[in-house]
Design a protein that fits this description.
Layout (H helix, E strand, L loop, with lengths): L6 E9 L6 H11 L3 E8 L8 E9 L2 H11 L5 E2 L6 E4 L17 E6 L2 E6 L6 E5 L2 E5 L9 E4 L4 E4 L1 H4 L19 H17 L3 E6 L2 H4 L3 H9 L5 E4 L1 H13 L1 E2 L2 E2 L12 H11 L3 H6 L7 H7 L4 E3 L16 H11 L3 E7 L2 H10 L5 E6 L2 H9 L5 E5 L2 H12 L3
Parallel strand pairs: 7-9, 12-13, 12-17, 13-16, 17-18, 18-19
Antiparallel strand pairs: 1-3, 1-4, 2-3, 5-10, 6-7, 6-11, 8-9, 14-15
Helix pairs in contact: 1-2, 4-14, 6-14, 7-8, 12-13
Amino acid sequence: MAKKKAFVEHVEMHGHIVDSLLLPKVLDAILSRGGTYHIEEFKLGERQDDTSSARIEVRADTAAALEAILAEIHPHGAVSAEPKDCTAVPADVAGAFPDGFYCTTNFRTQVRVGGKWIDVQDQEMDCGIVVGGESARCLPMTSVKVGDKIVVGRGGTRVFPPEAEVRKGSMFEFMSSPVSSERPKAVSVREVAAAMKRAKAAGEKIMAVLGPAVVHTGGAELVVKLIRGGYLNVLFAGNALATHDMEQAFYGTSLGVSFDHGLPTDEGHEHHLRTINTIRRLGGVRGAIDAGKLKSGIMYECVTRNIPAVLCGSIRDDGPLPEVITDVLLAQAEMRAHVPGTGFCLMVATTLHSVAVGNLLPASVKVACVDINPATVTKLMDRGSTQTVGIVSDAEPFLRSLVAELEKS
């Protein structure tokens, strides 16, 4: 009886593939998809900081089954043992990739061009890769132009999962631990503060993604302290955060609730709309500052200290403020422009903005997501932002503890 033909591919893995559990993940993926494997070579690092390597023969009964296995283990750092140059074909339709395009992750990625591996710039998940000469970068689908050379297939590509590159040392140096309301808050705050201090010392930008609950809970002045201390260099938010921040500056209220008394004020429900109208009549936030109308708050600090503040609109917005970008594709492009150089991102009390920004960040940017609802952080991690550490807390208490920790000598 003739022996059944097997389809075979040889792959290699390098890095901290044992203590990160990447190697077991790859082997389990092979078996769970009906394949088999044989470890042909294996070198185990002798010390904690040493890397390991493995060469694995992967077998499957059909070409389709083998391709499915290879596609699943590729993001874990398993690449062909016989690399070849990537294949790039000209885009034939504007705003769309060619069929079979390579879909990126947020992990550091390289492509092989002219026999050399080169880093892909502007790393971002859910994009394609455009190559030109000896350079390559991630490209959003909507930015594709006819003639762009787009990478198709997995050949000539390799990824570097963070787990394979960095040995576990802290909550921000490895895969994040599960979101839990039981984790000691003081420990989490110390780790976030330490990460922000490291980013600042390294000259990296610290990004904040903030929701209106930051203002509602009384945290605006704490954000101001972060800005003044050099711990907030870029702000991403929506119409509501900016509006209620300036409502507080104008009326001492947020959503009409007094910060002094904690009670709704007379005609307070109109304050947010009157705030927007005032800003629009003065031509924007800077106009309100120049006119002497706006004298405090998050937006005041951002404008007077030249902190970029990207405000992305939504269908729910009143007004909106003149600075709000209402075209989501333009807002994405503006946010992307501020991502390079970012070393740390703090997300507080905003589900949709957190997910949106998480999709734009490479895995090298560590993220702390703070929300009273654990589902916010879970959603962010489930969508691929696995570098996220979740902290279940209301906005103001967390920010107060963070500022106190940062102010320690």
